[in-house]
Structures are given as structure tokens and as C-alpha cells.
TrEMBL record:
This is Peptidase M20 dimerisation domain-containing protein. Residues 1-27 form the signal peptide. Residues 218-304 form the Peptidase M20 dimerisation domain. Pfam families: M20_dimer, Peptidase_M20. InterPro entries: Amidohydrolase, Bact_exopeptidase_dim_dom, Peptidase_M20, Peptidase_M20_dimer. Residues 558-571 have a biased composition (Low complexity). Residues 548-582 are annotated as: Disordered. It comes from the Eukaryota. The keyword Signal applies. Keywords: Signal.
Length: 582
């Protein structure tokens, strides 16, 4: 039953509200037809296969990055490089004015240290390296989206930024992209991953948590070695480490609620070169800890060291060199609003709208091709974007087809991309970006027609409540702001028009806080003010998110230490991470 529930793909019934407005739907539904045009299909195939030949590991994607930049040059799309060592921030496509609503589309660029086992004409040219996670397809689909958006650029009511991100596989390239400004001005971000477990052509999303938080550990069980014929003269670390491996299973089986989801996997057990008649001095273990809930994740990270130390001590051995990665991945969560928009857009792309009055078809539209997927215990550094961008959605694109062999799992040396799905991925990226921008424009229009009072309320709705401090009163400037604001309300003060002019010339980013606050009351400037405030706080928010996680960790460490009756949690040292993530 548990398997059935956890792996179930729940069918979703979608009611398409937007189809009441024909023009709104049609603005992006043609993207799929365009993407299926012979020209773009040929380009998608070429990009995907050329990139497949040249896989590079995280932060070493120099040739890959150069290849992408060449394609962007050919399309006439400007970009910034490097952002995050080898990363690229392309665009914005569409409107480039300061403060317009902007959405980012993201593709990861790194390959894996895997030797490809499938013989195809475009097989990896680099021994021991393979695009076994579909990141070649992600880049090709984003280039495809770039072309679609470029050809419809004039009608975009905002900006679209394209992020080609390095080092998703364990090194947290997303975090470096954020730190180097990739998200400035961005109010929403969409990521797409090919998914062999989902039938080809199906689009999967899920509001809330989609993927797990993840971290990896390693430690050494140290004993006293000796002759294999005389174990009584040793402290055998092999037997102790074997017991530790078994005991760690209890952390999930007996300490985690059956309603919760968590994993503790010991994946390496290394006794060194050794000999059959020698008991070694030490055994090195390593593995991964994952959980959907942050609390569970932090508790497990503490308990791994405690249990290992306690069990090893029972065998007369010690545990040392406990290390965790420097950048544990948080859970990947989908914003409910953006996830709902993904469902709506995907449905409109894949199924034509019902005849007017056909309520039966309205109710079942999208049920076959757009599905709510279950959570997975894999992880993604896309989760870092969720720390700082209010609306994030990570969507999966089904490529599974047993006849073609494209249902082989990610990170498998026999993994294969289903190239027929490339146009759908490209169209989905482009369509979602367009739909989101139209949604923002429509909302702004409604506010303008409904008066300016609602503007700031909407701005606050667009930002993450507990992260955004833009709405907090500024004690020093409140008096000034209020008096100017009152004058603005009267509509007669000539100073106000001069301030507006000043803001138009200089851009709201350069305005002092009190003036920004005044301008936020006016629909013309409200979005720009929200974006400027958001950008100003970006680095700070990333830091706050990190501090929050550390605080949670400390809290759990203290609680766990209390519960175990020990004075301190085991020593933890940082080490470079190498997750085997999505
Ligand atoms: Zn991967
Ligand atoms: Zn991946």
C-alpha cells in the first residue's frame, strides 16, 4: 500500500478558467505548433545531440557554455557571462524597462561521471562523462524556448530571463548564480526536468513539496587492526561498521513517523586495499540523508553521528572525521499559484478547449496528459531559488517509452532521452513565461481600473511574506513619507509631479526609501518599487534563509543531545559536496 501511495501518479482534473478569455489562451497555445515546425525540431535535435557529445562536470562546463553562447549570438539574444563561473544569464527577452514583471526560465548544464553504455551516433566523446540526467535536453529545450520567445518578443508584456546554470549535480550551482545576481528583477522562476518514470508526453506538477532535502555524510570507524587469525587481539572496525550500518536503518524505521518520508542510505563501505588475513585499522562509510520535512531532515543529520558513535563504542571502536556537505539542499517546493498556472498552461497546450457549453469535457480536460505527480526523494538545487524568489515551479516532463528504451532511470549508464518530447518542453517553458507575464499585466490592469489603493496589497501578495521586509515601516522616514503621500492624495502638489518625473528619469532603484514608499502607492511605479525592494534584499534574504536553516539545525542538535543525555552533538566538519542529485 505504501508503495502504491508513494509512487502513485494521481490524475488531475483541470478546469480551465482562462479559456473564458479566448485571446488570453491563444497568445501562447500556438507555441507548441511553432515548436513542432520542421525548422525548430531540426535545431532542437541538433542542439540536444551536439551537447550530448560533450558532457562536462559541474563548474567545468566551459565548452558547453561557449556552445550555448554561440547559439544565443546567432539568435541575437544578449547575455551576461560568466554568472556563477560558467553560467549564463540571457535576456531579458520582451520588455527591458526597469521594474517590469520578469520571469526566469532555468536549465542546468552539467554532466555526470558515468560511462555511457548506449551506442548512438551522438554518444559522449569524453570517456567517463555522460549526460545521464537529461541536462543536454534541458539546455536544448531552453534554447528552443528562447527562439519561440524571441520571435514573439514584441507581444510579451514583461521580461523573460534565461538561466543556463552550472553544477546542479551536488555543488549547488544555483546558489552561486543567485549570489552573482542572476535573479535580479525576477518575480518567478520555472525549471523543467525530463522524467523517465512518467509516460512520454505527460507533464507533471505538484503544489507544495515535490523533492526532498538532501545531504551526504562520511565518517571513519576506527579500531585496532591485527591478524585475521587473532581477532581477540584487535578492535575489529569491520564488525563495528557493519553494526553501525544496520543501526542507522533504525533512524527511519523506528524514529521517523510512518506518515513522514525519509531515507538514510549507507552507500560506501571502504576498508582500504587490505588483505584477506588482515583486520584493518579503520573503515570509511559514506551515504546520504534525505527527508521531505525540514524538521525530520535536521533531526536525522544529528542522529547519524550519535548512533554511529554509540554503536561503535560498544565494539571498542571510535567514530571520527564526521563530515557533511557544505551546502545541503533544501526541499524543492512548488508555489501553489505558479503550479496551478503550469497545470492550466500545459492543459491548454495539449488539449484544445471544449466547445462552449460542453461542461463534461471541461471537467476532464487535461486529465490524461497533465498529472499531479507524487513526491520523490531525489533532490534539486533548484530549491535554492525558492529561498529568494516568491513564485517557483519545478515541472517534470514525461519521456518514458519502453519501446524506445527511454524509461531507463536518470543517472543510469543506459539512460536515453526521448527526443520527440523536446518541442513540448520548449513550448511549455515559453508558454508558461508568456502566461505568467500576461497574468501579471492583467492584474495590473485590474488594479489600475479599480483604483490605486489595491496596488501595494498585490505587491505584497507577490512576495514571500516571511522573507520580505519591504512592507515594514521605516521609522526614520515615515513622517516625510506620510506628508508627501497626503499631498499626493490631494493631487494638487506640484512637488509630486516633479518627484514622479525624477523617478522616471533615474529609475526607482535610485530613490531613497521614503520616496520609494510614496511611489509604491501609485500603480505606475508599484511593481518597480516592489522589484527594487526585492533586489535590495536578495543577498540578505539568502543569508537569512541560511541562518534559519542553521538555527533549526542547532535547535535539533540541542534537543537530540538532551534526549540522548550527552553533552554535545558529534563534531561536524564541512567538506565539498558531491550529491548525486537530479
Ligand atoms: Zn542528476
Ligand atoms: Zn538533473
Amino acid at each position: 500500500m505504501e508503495t502504491l501511495i508513494s509512487s502513485a501518479v494521481l490524475r488531475l482534473w483541470v478546469l480551465c478558467a482562462c479559456c473564458a478569455i479566448t485571446a488570453y489562451c491563444q497568445s501562447y497555445t500556438t507555441y507548441l505548433e511553432e515548436a513542432k515546425g520542421a525548422d525548430l525540431v531540426a535545431s532542437l535535435l541538433r542542439w540536444r545531440r551536439e551537447l550530448h557529445k560533450m558532457p562536462e562536470l559541474g563548474f567545468l562546463e566551459t565548452s558547453t557554455s561557449e556552445y550555448i553562447r554561440t547559439q544565443l549570438d546567432q539568435m541575437g539574444i544578449p547575455y551576461e557571462y560568466p554568472v556563477g563561473k560558467t553560467g549564463i544569464r540571457a535576456g531579458p527577452l520582451g520588455k527591458t524597462d526597469e521594474g517590469v514583471p520578469t520571469i526566469a526560465l532555468r536549465a542546468d548544464m552539467d554532466g555526470l561521471p558515468i560511462t555511457e553504455e548506449v551506442d548512438v551516433p551522438y554518444k559522449s566523446m569524453t570517456p567517463g562523462r555522460m549526460h545521464a540526467c537529461g541536462h543536454d535536453a534541458h539546455m536544448a529545450m531552453l534554447l528552443g524556448a528562447a527562439r519561440l520567445l524571441k520571435s514573439n518578443e514584441a507581444s510579451l508584456p514583461g521580461g523573460v530571463v534565461l538561466l543556463f546554470q552550472p553544477a546542479e549535480e551536488g555543488l549547488g550551482g544555483a546558489r552561486m548564480m543567485i549570489e552573482e545576481g542572476a535573479l535580479r528583477g525576477v518575480g518567478a522562476i520555472h525549471g523543467l526536468h525530463v522524467w523517465p518514470a512518467l509516460p512520454a508526453g505527460v507533464i507533471g506538477t505538484r503544489p507544495g513539496v515535490l523533492l526532498a532535502a538532501s545531504d551526504r555524510f562520511s565518517f571513519v570507524v576506527r579500531g585496532v587492526g591485527g591478524h585475521g587469525a587473532m581477532p581477540h587481539t584487535t578492535r575489529d572496525p569491520v564488525v563495528a561498521a557493519a553494526a553501525v550500518v544496520m543501526a542507522l536503518q533504525v533512524l527511519v524505521a523506528r524514529e521517523t513517523s510512518p506518515m513522514d518520508s525519509a531515507v538514510v542510505t549507507v552507500s560506501t563501505f571502504n576498508t582500504g586495499p587490505g588483505a584477506t588475513n588482515v583486520i584493518p585499522e579503520s573503515v570509511k562509510l559514506s551515504g546520504t540523508v534525505r527527508a521531505l520535512a525540514n524538521d525530520t531532515f535536521h533531526r536525522l543529520r544529528i542522529r547519524v553521528g550519535q548512533v554511529a558513535t554509540g554503536i561503535a563504542a560498544g565494539y571498542g571502536c571510535v567514530v571520527d572525521n564526521v563530515t557533511w556537505s557544505e551546502v545541503p539542499y533544501p526541499p524543492t517546493r512548488n508555489d501553489e499559484r505558479l503550479s496551478a498556472l503550469v497545470r492550466e498552461v500545459a492543459t491548454n497546450l495539449l488539449e484544445s478547449p471544449p466547445e462552449s457549453g460542453d461542461t463534461d469535457k471541461s471537467l476532464t480536460r487535461g486529465s490524461a496528459k497533465v498529472q499531479e505527480v507524487g513526491t520523490a526523494m531525489t533532490a534539486e538545487d533548484f530549491s535554492f531559488y525558492g529561498d529568494v524568489v516568491p513564485q517557483t515551479a519545478f515541472t517534470v516532463l514525461g519521456i518514458g517509452d519502453s519501446a524506445k528504451g527511454t524509461n531507463v532511470g536518470l543517472h543510469n549508464p543506459r539512460f536515453q532521452m526521448n527526443d520527440e518530447q523536446l518541442p513540448l518542453g520548449a513550448a511549455l517553458h515559453a508558454a508558461l513565461a508568456t502566461a505568467w507575464l500576461e497574468q501579471q499585466a492583467q492584474r495590473q490592469q485590474e488594479q489600475e481600473s479599480g483604483g490605486t489603493a489595491a496596488t501595494t496589497a498585490d505587491v505584497h501578495e507577490e512576495t514571500d511574506d516571511d522573507l520580505n521586509d519591504a512592507s515594514q515601516p521605516d521609522a526614520d522616514s515615515d513622517g516625510v513619507a506620510m506628508s508627501v503621500a497626503t499631498a499626493a492624495d490631494s493631487g494638487e502638489d506640484p512637488r509630486i509631479e516633479s518627484l514622479r518625473k525624477y523617478a522616471r528619469e533615474k529609475g526607482v532603484k535610485r530613490m531613497p526609501p521614503w520616496l520609494r514608499k510614496v511611489l509604491a502607492r501609485e500603480s505606475e511605479f508599484a511593481h518597480a518599487v516592489a522589484q527594487a525592494d526585492f533586489e535590495d534584499g536578495l543577498r540578505e534574504r539568502l543569508e537569512q534563509a541560511r541562518l534559519r536553516r542553521e538555527e533549526q539545525q542547532r535547535k535539533h542538535a540541542a534537543a537530540a543531545a538532551d534526549a540522548a543525555g550527552t553533552a554535545d552533538a558529534p563534531a561536524v566538519e564541512g567538506s565539498p559536496s558531491s550529491h548525486d542529485e537530479l
